[in-house]
Specification:
Helix content is 34%, strand content 22%. The protein has 258 residues and is of the alpha/beta class. It has a domain of 145 residues: P-loop containing nucleotide triphosphate hydrolases (Rossmann fold, 3-Layer(aba) Sandwich). A hairpin with a 2-residue loop joins strand 8 and strand 9. The longest helix is centred in the C-terminal third of the chain and has 18 residues.
Length: 258
Amino acid sequence: MKPPPACRLDQVSLSLGDRTILQSISLEVGRGEQVAILGPSGAGKTTLLRMLSAGLPPSQGGVRVLDQNPWQLKRNGLRRLRSKIGFVHQDHALVPNLRVWQNVAVGRLGRPGNLGHIRRLTLASPSELRDLHEVLEQVGIADLLFQRTADLSGGEQQRVAIARSLYQQPALLLADEPVASVDPARAQQVMDLLLDLADSRDIPLVISMHDLELARRNMSRLIGLRNGRVLFDSTPGEVSESTIKELYALASQENEAP
């Protein structure tokens, strides 16, 4: 029997006041898929990721994430679901005054019954520090374990954010423009880290991004989003140059969703 998709949107729309952000979106992301969401700024990419992360309910349509409807769950159930979803934010969403290991340890704070993790943010056990060191080693910054996060470079902070998702042991990994502010060489390094994380756990990876060529080289599926609508949903080889021009060229002539 075929397993259910990791997430599914069925004719989903989202409106804020008189503005429509997402319009009649239907898509599925299978377990183990690697998907890039492309589109101009304001196309609705971040909003779509928030929907997939069980962080934003739709105005219309159905949502299932990890085979659950987030908006039919009670508070603890929703917290359990969200604890299984890793989200690498564009601004990293780190606490500057905490040490690196503390920011990584935050990845498991959402788990029900893990209130002890909050207390251990001030004093980790030797076994926890070993686990944290191992995670940081996988992203190449194990030597920064006890550094103050605010003192790190932007690239190092980005790796801390990825390590936090790795430590979380998610069943679904989302990343919002993780390579938007880095040079091409570092962009590929970041992509490699995210892909390795997804591959090692056989979990789906969904990334919003602008770099078409980077997406074509690394991702198995491309979704083009414009004005809150899906323009295409194809493999990299199936997306024509004329379609890409339509995705970006028309955006400058139309009102874009935020």
